[in-house]
Design the sequence.
């Protein structure tokens, strides 16, 4: 297994803080590593040091000669110029990049909405894209490259559930077994489990290494904590004995052996500082009656693009929320998830039907934008909570606002920091606490996991687990949905709210089936995760069937294109399998010769199938 890069005693100092202190680690071919840690502990700094973007203050980083590294930084350049096409595929002609299955897969998986909803599609200027679209374009530009090491900093930001599933599958199958390396910083726990085989935790200036994805990391971390607690208990007992012995009086102390005094001093000095805990206290919910929130035959429309006809987001929707119901809402961007929440709260009025609210309902809403904090931006964090409530009862005991803020994970200094200067994660935690101190009985959360690290996410989930009221969560975080809600519903863009007995997996299946049955299904790119991608991603810019083709010929061509797509998927799987077997049999000359012949045959057939698909797609339109 080839060694790709190595870090030796790396140290980074920012201000007066040691972000990294003597970190040594390495990356090998075949590694799939997820990086976790609290916000501000140095995850992005570690990535920048390893990729050579940031020079360490101490130690060194060495890379294998000729190492090809693709990097997605945490923040994109808002002033980037050029078009989407230039960023992703450069000046390559359509037939060149469309002939590469990986490039087609990336374009269809990440830029489908750019092609269908942005004027100009791939030829649109980057300045015309939304922040999320620019982020996906930057991710696509990294993934189309042929890299030995791919380094991604928060790649799941601005991806919906479907996009996260596509990215995990792409990274799982990107390289043959034992080849290529992945280093990714993300707070998406499901994604970590789906594509990572190792986990690095950046904490306290060091890097702790764990085998496995997020689930294995949590188990191993819990075991380490248990062992540390046992060690701490033993140290505490020794400290008590030593201190009791030292307190026996001045005459006795002068006659004590010096090594006993040194041992006591060493024990005191070795006592580790208390680790900052992130804990949110769940508050009691107010009484909730039988009637909660109901949408009855609701219709809601939004203005069409460029002055076009209005678009119907909800079309005769009836949806009733029961007392204590816990439901997650999923759907593509723009399907109307946030609109549903605003209808439930009364911020929006339906164009048809009605919204019924129970008499005892007390609703609290955590919005995506956290605009509620703008009016308290000049207040300090503690003052922002005290403005809502100075004291409440938790588990039968009175708790002050200052105690709640401390439990929320704010140090004394951060508690007295103006709200406007807090980080995104701190602001989200603060607003959640401001909502909970009012003891609501209906909680509506719109993307609550934005800007939160894994430790804080675990605390938020613990709060939601104990929330004694009706809970509605809109989120792309699959782990959060499956952990905190009992069932999920979907907005599929057809104006309806559909129940998902099979959970998120059923939603992904429905989306896949809808794309396969869509009007542009036959024009989808072979090997793509999104079979409804527009033909603008194919070898030509044509978006309509070939002139002169009859309806029957178009239908036949579409069926043939779909058959060829299925064949391509099997050939690509066979190719990856053969390459993996060749890597495993590198020292067996006879086996290598046989496998090489098989691989060449598969590659030749794949090229023939791709050519046939291009012909069928041209007719199908």
Sequence:
């Amino acid at each position: 297994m080839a060694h790709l890069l190595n870090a030796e005693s790396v140290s980074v100092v920012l201000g007066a803080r040691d972000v990294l202190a003597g970190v040594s680690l390495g990356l090998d071919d075949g590694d799939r590593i997820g990086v976790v840690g609290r916000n501000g502990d140095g995850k992005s700094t570690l990535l920048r040091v390893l990729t050579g973007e940031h020079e360490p203050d101490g130690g060194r980083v060495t890379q294998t000669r000729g190492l090809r590294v693709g990097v997605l930084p945490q923040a994109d350049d808002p002033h980037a110029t050029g078009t989407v096409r230039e960023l992703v595929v450069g000046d390559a002609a359509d037939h060149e990049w469309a002939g590469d299955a990986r490039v087609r897969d990336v374009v269809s998986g990440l830029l489908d909405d750019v092609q269908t909803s942005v004027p100009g599609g791939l030829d649109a200027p980057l300045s015309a894209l939304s922040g999320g679209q620019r982020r996906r374009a930057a991710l696509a530009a990294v993934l189309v490259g042929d890299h030995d090491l791919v380094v991604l900093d928060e790649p799941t930001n601005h991806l919906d559930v479907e996009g996260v599933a596509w990215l995990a599958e792409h990274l799982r199958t990107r390289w043959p077994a034992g080849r290529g390396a992945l280093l990714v910083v993300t707070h998406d726990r499901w994604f970590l489990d789906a594509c990572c085989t190792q986990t690095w935790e950046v904490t306290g200036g060091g890097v702790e290494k764990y085998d496995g994805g997020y689930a294995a990391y949590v188990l191993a971390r819990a075991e380490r904590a248990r062992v540390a607690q046992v060690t701490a208990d033993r140290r505490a007992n020794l400290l008590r004995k030593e201190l009791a012995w030292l307190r026996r009086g001045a005459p006795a102390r002068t006659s004590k052996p010096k090594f006993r005094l040194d041992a006591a001093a060493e024990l005191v000095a070795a006592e580790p500082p208390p680790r900052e805990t992130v804990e949110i206290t769940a508050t009691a919910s107010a009484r909730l009656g039988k009637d909660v929130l109901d949408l009855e035959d609701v219709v809601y429309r939004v203005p069409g693009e460029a002055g076009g006809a209005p678009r119907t987001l909800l079309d005769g929707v009836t949806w009733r929320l029961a007392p204590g119901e816990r439901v997650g809402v999923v759907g593509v961007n723009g399907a109307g998830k946030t609109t549903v929440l605003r209808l439930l709260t009364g911020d929006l009025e339906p164009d048809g039907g009605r919204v019924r609210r129970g008499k005892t309902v007390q609703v609290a809403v955590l919005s995506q934008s956290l605009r509620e904090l703008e009016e308290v931006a000049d207040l300090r964090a503690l003052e922002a909570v005290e403005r809502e409530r100075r004291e409440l009862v938790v588990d039968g005991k009175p708790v002050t606002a200052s105690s709640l803020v401390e439990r929320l994970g704010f140090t004394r200094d951060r508690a007295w920091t103006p709200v406007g200067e807090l980080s995104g994660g701190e602001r989200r935690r603060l607003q959640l606490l401001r909502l909970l101190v009012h003891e609501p009985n209906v909680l509506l959360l719109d993307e609550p996991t934005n800007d939160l690290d894994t430790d804080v996410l675990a605390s938020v989930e613990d709060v939601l687990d104990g929330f004694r009221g009706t809970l509605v969560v809109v989120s792309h975080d699959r782990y959060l949905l499956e952990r905190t809600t009992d069932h999920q519903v979907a907005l599929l863009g057809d104006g309806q709210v559909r129940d998902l007995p099979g959970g998120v997996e059923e939603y992904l299946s429905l989306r896949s089936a809808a794309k396969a049955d869509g009007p542009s299904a036959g024009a989808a790119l072979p090997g793509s995760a999104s079979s409804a991608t527009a033909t603008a991603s194919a070898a030509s810019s044509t978006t309509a069937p070939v002139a002169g083709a009859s309806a029957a010929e178009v239908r036949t061509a579409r069926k043939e294109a779909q058959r060829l797509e299925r064949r391509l998927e099997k050939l690509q799987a066979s190719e990856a399998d053969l390459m993996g077997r060749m890597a495993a049999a590198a020292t067996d000359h006879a086996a290598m010769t046989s496998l090489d012949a098989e691989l060449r045959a598969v590659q030749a057939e794949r090229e023939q199938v791709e050519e046939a698909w291009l012909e069928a797609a041209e007719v199908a339109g």
User: Anything to note?
Assistant: Confidence is low (pLDDT under 50) at residues 250-256, 272-286, 519-545. DSSP finds 21 helices and 20 strands in the chain.
